[in-house]
Amino acid sequence: MSYPVTYYCPHCGAVVEVEREGYLADKSVTPYPLEGWIYTDPHDSTNVSYESADGIRFVCGEIPSELDTDQATSGIRWTGDRSPADDVENPDITSPCGRPFYLSFVRFEDGTEIEPRPDTDRVRIASDTAGPSQPNGPTSPDGPGGFRR
User: Fold this and answer.
1) CB 70 within 8 A of CB 10
2) Of 7, 26, 109, 119, which residue is most buried, by most CB within 10 angstroms?
3) Sheet holding 100-105, edge to edge
4) Phi and psi for 8 in degrees, rounded to 5?
5) pLDDT at position 64, please?
6) Is residue 138's pLDDT more than 80?
């Protein structure tokens, strides 16, 4: 049996109502996807069940086109409300904001809850061949006869 469950956009606070099974356990709602989680589009609930995904990827305020389906059959409805929660990133921006956010379900592997892995993206500041091999300090004044250390 499905139930209406509400979530809010972490960017602007816009509230969305989703029709979904009650036994699915929520992990978090974040402005970024969790590494290793597979997300489904909320408008694909007739084709891909939420149970087969690790979460739902929303775009704040997006509704299915009238050619595809209507809100009643898509299982998603933007309420027009805004959450007063203190963790909304920017409560003063226009709502809905059109930015993506992610509802992640609790995942289990061999009976143990899976914790999200930290982001593995590394930032390379400079290549190995560019720039000095070590930091250089200030140059010292010349000694007698132009000698430098």
Assistant:
1) no
2) 7
3) 26-30, 100-105, 55-59, 39-40
4) -125, 150
5) 62
6) no
Inter-residue contact 101 to 10 (CB < 8 Å): yes
Distances (CA, A) of 41 to 24, 58, 139, 141: 16, 7, 60, 67
Q: φ and ψ at 19, to 5 degrees?
A: -90, 115
The pTM is what? 0.68
Please give, one letter per residue, the 3-state secondary structure of the chain.
Answer: CEEEEEEECCCCCEEEEEEEECCCCEEEEECCCCCCCCEECHHHCCCCCHHHCCEEEEECCCCCCCCCCCHHHHCEEEEEEECCCCCCCCCCCCCCCCCEEEEEECCEECCEECCCCCCCCCCCCCCCCCCCCCCCCCCCCCCHHHCCC
Overall size of the chain counted in residues: 149
Tokens of 17: 């109502």
Residue 29 corresponds to which amino acid?
Answer: V
Separation of alpha carbons 17 and 94, rounded Å: 19
Structure token digits, residue 114: 């899976």
Q: Which residues of 101-110 are buried (b: 16+ CB within 10 A; e: fewer)?
A: bbbbbebeee
